[in-house]
Amino acid sequence: MNIHTIFMITPISGIASIIVAIYLYFHVKSQNAGTDKMKDISAAIREGAVAYLKRQYMTLAVFSAIVAVLIAVFLDYNQAIAYIIGSICSALAGFLGMDIALHANVRTAQAARKGLKKAFSIGFYGGAVMGLAVVGLALIGVSVLYYVYYDPSNVSYAPNIILGFSFGASSIALFAKAGGGIYTKTADIGADLVGKVEMNIPEDDPRNPAVIADNVGDNVGDVAGMGADLYDSYVAGVLAAMIIGGLTLGVTGVILPLLIKALGIFASIIGLLFVRVKGSPGSALNRGTYITCTIFAVFAFLLIYYLGIYYPEIEMNLFYATLTGLIVGIIIGLTSDYYTSIDRTPARKTAESSKTGVAINILTGFSYGSISIVPPLLGIAIATIIAFQLAGIFGIAMSAVGIMATAAMIVSADAYGPIVDNAKGIAEQSGLGEEVIARADKLDAAGNTAKAITKGFAISSAGLTVIALLVAYAEIVGIETINFMDPFVMAGTIIGISIPPFLSALMILGVGKNAFRMIEEVRRQFKQIPGLMEGKAQPDYARCVDIATKGALKELILPSVLTIATPLAVGFILGKNALGGFLAGSILSGMVFAFLMSNAGGLWDNAKKYIEDGKLGGKGSDAHKAAVAGDTVGDPFKDTAGPSINTLLVVMSLTASMFAELIALHALIG
Amino acid sequence: MNIHTIFMITPISGIASIIVAIYLYFHVKSQNAGTDKMKDISAAIREGAVAYLKRQYMTLAVFSAIVAVLIAVFLDYNQAIAYIIGSICSALAGFLGMDIALHANVRTAQAARKGLKKAFSIGFYGGAVMGLAVVGLALIGVSVLYYVYYDPSNVSYAPNIILGFSFGASSIALFAKAGGGIYTKTADIGADLVGKVEMNIPEDDPRNPAVIADNVGDNVGDVAGMGADLYDSYVAGVLAAMIIGGLTLGVTGVILPLLIKALGIFASIIGLLFVRVKGSPGSALNRGTYITCTIFAVFAFLLIYYLGIYYPEIEMNLFYATLTGLIVGIIIGLTSDYYTSIDRTPARKTAESSKTGVAINILTGFSYGSISIVPPLLGIAIATIIAFQLAGIFGIAMSAVGIMATAAMIVSADAYGPIVDNAKGIAEQSGLGEEVIARADKLDAAGNTAKAITKGFAISSAGLTVIALLVAYAEIVGIETINFMDPFVMAGTIIGISIPPFLSALMILGVGKNAFRMIEEVRRQFKQIPGLMEGKAQPDYARCVDIATKGALKELILPSVLTIATPLAVGFILGKNALGGFLAGSILSGMVFAFLMSNAGGLWDNAKKYIEDGKLGGKGSDAHKAAVAGDTVGDPFKDTAGPSINTLLVVMSLTASMFAELIALHALIG
Prior knowledge:
Two copies of one chain form a homodimer.
Chain A: H1 3-6, H2 9-29, H3 36-74, H4 77-112, H5 116-149, H6 157-198, H7 211-249, H8 251-273, H9 281-310, H10 316-340, H11 345-353, H12 358-371, H13 374-404, H14 407-429, H15 434-477, H16 487-528, H17 541-574, H18 576-612, H19 622-658, H20 660-666
């Protein structure tokens, strides 16, 4: 059978994904949206979130237009078109995910008034809309571009155009992630430090002026940002495999990654049906993930087995390489879980250390976070060797594809988290009572448990994807080694390792600066609005939303622009070899800081929750205060800087690949 | 002239250095040691310090004996002898430095009763004894081994034996640094958290049960640990250059680095004469450093110029490569200074952020610390390229030699710091009055200013030295590339980057655990000893010293042993290429964490001092409390983990080089 006939599975899977997403969207929207008060709160959150995204997208439109012109002039007209489409799709994925999340949160809260089961399914289906939209939009976009730009005389041409698409998706994702991350933590820290710590009112209390901004933040950061981010790494992963596959196996190598992704979508749609609460919500989510992975593995086996009959270049080892990624992803997830889970030693020791004050809490959490780097890196190292031994460099790329093939399911479980978190907030602000809040808490806890495994997938996939992108860069630019003994490579690598901590720091400082403004404003309102503490007067929510919005947009510019500018500077000054080293260096230190920040952040959060569960003196104790400070340090680690690093690495790698030929021709020295 | 006649400059410089050191030793010792109370305190510190070192050295003797036997059996009998000599010299350098520091501190305090000038010179000459002893012992040791093992048929034989010497020095330094670092911060945190924060008594107050342990810690950590550490990096730097020089230029390449080091000693001895207080003590120290560097540059120029006449392989470019190191070292020092100095934006912004509480203080300090990574790494990258362009790989090694050639002067200025710090403590505990304490404070502040530049030298030298050691490893094991695109190298690199943060974390957790025990004990004494707070009863100092001692020895074992075991595991399992990647990876992430931790720690310290100077509410304000917590986080960063990383990298590189041939023959896979 012609490979391009088989290829049609890809757009079909994308369309199927979108159809299911639309069905679920209307299913969720048809649910009861609750009391008037709930609708009011929900509307306020929506208003703030949409206002933020609108301003963000307008800023990005200007930026994207400039970049598109530059690409059209200096590189390739068609790549510029692909770039614009990629940007739009990425923004769309983020926006759609947020839109449904804003419908789902209030409906989950309403359903939680009756029981756990219904509430869970609304939250999860809300997440599934985003999961399906992300992968559907990605595969449709890539398929269409592939179809339009396929050139039988040069199988690498279409992937090269799709590079523009991926670059567009990633650069938007970077802004969305950085901006959303700064927004959400600005609001969170502002709300917590004044509300919880200084005024002693509970989280999500409607008297807190920053509470709406906090809820908005969850949506623009955790939902819209994450949607754009996963969209970008999904596309980058498949693209890297297409480029390497094309160079090693020819046209079947270009198409195989797409087919594997398509099977992942079908497996995820089947898996979604199994996500129902039987025991705890947490195990329902995990069951869905495991079933999806199993079905996907069977599908992938059958595909590669039968393709191998007609196309001898498709060897069974490619299946095993894909499977390696999947298994390593699960193992990494489980080990990461150990370092953050509330039931394990690290979180407990960190909680205990809070008794000696905040400094020891910080040191303990930071140390366990640093130790938690070892298992995932060991996992990635082992996966790299096994996948390479099985199927060469294409094997490494396929293992990255394997992990994220089930992205629809993974994103669904991930997006469930902020939806139910928001539902909890709405339940609290609308005074739905203890029982409902307790249910919402249960739903929320399930989100945190599921997160460990999905995070493992995301981390290992990102690691392997950027390695594959580095290989793709080397192939494009025509260098066979990235030899650390070459002084230019060495210099590039040394510069590269400094970039991820540098850019993370800029983002964290951005959060700090903006949080400072927010704290001043919240304090001011508590002081100047009479009757606010007594619940007799309304705080000025809009003012806080405005501070978060303006600040986030202001602070995201520098780190985002530097992400694109730095690899270009290194490449055009020190040459293509130094740029290879630069990418390697930034990938290496990027992985270290991504794991460190995500895990330490999660750990501090759970250490605080452990104490809030009544241990070690419980809420209000000195240990609790120390743990709250630890959690506040961890917040921008895990929600701003940590998750931005993956996107940052992808953007740097893609920038290098996009400009590879120009750099090879025009570098100053090196 | 025969090169081996010229070589004699080296042992002569070593002997000259020791003679001057002995002279200064007796000069310092002949000074007035103060009142009986001062002598008592001094005796108590000495007792604790000697007890600790005794136990540490006994533990290390067992370890060294085992390693020596392993080396004799598996590698080379002569290398084992060199290993033992290296271990003893390293321990001796640490011990001598500490011994004179313990004489100098109390005499500096006594002299401060009369004036600044005399006190300064006692403190500085105390430091100079250590500086001169370190370089003297190093060059004599290396010269003797070179003389004994020189083999005209194989110029690489002697350097290979000296590898054992360097390995011995480094492994002892690692234990001394890690153990001393854990000790000093255990005591410091214990004393501060209970004394300053909970009981509101001043620093170094004699009522604090941990105050003697704290003073002991300064000596075993900052003095003895630093002595061993600088000894080890001085030897490793010259060794790497000898190995590479031998392979690229033959016998003159082996000897040139030694000659350069010898000139550095003479320049330092001359420079010492210029260190007298005219204006402030800080500028006296800096003047000494600058004059020494200038004289050294002239000497090095003349040497290489005249050698070049007789030995054409010695090109002037080698001088410029050496000079590059020197200049980059100074520049890095000045930029590092910016990120930690009390007068600059980062420390001030961190201080200001303390107003919003401890979490934002931590985030701000951590962020500036992360940003501070960029200038030194950029400096090292530029130095690498320039030195390589000038004189190839040997050029990189020579630039590392260039930086640390003036080590005698640098170590003197560095060791001055803890001596005057201790003098201040003694002045406070013996109640010498406000005026004397103010003078001691001035002396102490000068130490901190000088530290920035010496730290710049240490950092850049360590970075370039480990890069040179990596090159040496590659030469020894016979690999021409460390190609990141090779999956084994990639896997090795990925594992390597996880090791420095992992081992740092183990050390910090060790501090945390031990500090916990110390805090409990100090709290217990304040509760259970009647009249302690009123100054009517003596605290039980010995008990605190004992806790710090036992804990430090217990906690140093795991990280130190892993430092040696991990490269061996990677090498014997994944092979020599993977081990090359492993070293590269650990060097890269090691540099990042070393800069981050040292600078963030210094920054938090100065942010606290800024507030203590009366700004932002001054002592006792909420901002001050937040800044104290930040400083407590920074303490193990800058005094335990950060400085241990350099040693750790050197030990890992030397381990790899020592076992290179065995690994090449016996690796499992790869």
